[in-house]
Amino acid sequence: MRHLKAFHIFHVAASSASFSEAANRLNITHGAVSKQVKVLEGYLGQALFYKQGRHLYLTQEGELLKQYTHTAFAALEDGVSQLKQSQQQYLEISCEPTLTMRWLMPRLSGFHEEAEGADIRLSTAGGAVTLGATGLSLAIRRDDFKVEHDYNKVALVDEWVGPVFSPDYWQQVRHDFSCIRLLHSQTRRSAWEDWATRSGRNELEGCSNQTFAHFYFCFQAAVDGLGGALGSYPLVVDDLKRGNLIAPFGFMPSGHKYVLLSQKRTPSDLEYRFTQWLVGSLSGCVPTEGEANGLSGMAF
Fold first, then answer.
1. Main-chain phi, psi angles of 131, to 5 degrees
2. Dihedral sign computed on CA atoms, order 126, 127, 131, 134
3. Nearest to 287 by CA among 254, 251, 249
């Protein structure tokens, strides 16, 4: 394409605060940026920037062209990423940290048995994510944030939550909720309050509190008998089955769900197979009727 270099330099300059910043990002001189912008303005026959005082601003035509170049170069980046991934025999997957540690990792061998030789590379993060150009193929998230990009979103499972304790700790506090130490996470500060609001219960005021940096610390602390954690069912299901934790007050829907985010393009074979396995494995991870009601139907 004619003047492709000039379009790219304009694209960077339009996204920068100045030609100097664009030059630093492109590793070229300020003069080279200015020259290519002038070339593009001559080709289009329209001014793209104007100065006001010491600041540089886009003209109306420049703002319009910025939208076009953003779309074009984003599509190019995604296309290049797709070409690279089609040659790869691995997937880069971002997943919520606690879900990774307490649900996904213990089950990943099951996918390896279905897809022999598959290389799944996990990274942990929550919230907003950018796929494609960053190397990430998929992201597994709790839907508690606004997705800024136009991604496919597959619902995996509704989230059910409830208080969990070690059996010994529950005996220690003599089944009295007001004696419980509430274990909090800095990453989900309002978890207990949200549960109390949805359940219509207000017994939290008399409880003591302890806060940890991450959600998964809360569950380990609960297993170790330090207090009670507000458990999302997939994150505690294994410890419930082993008897390390009990949920005497059962579980209730939190109003959130876990979702899988992917780019709107034809997936690679490995990406498709992992998606099908994940949907099948996690979709049924909800409490039974007995678990939802509590071990013995106890109430506050």
1. -100, 170
2. negative
3. 251
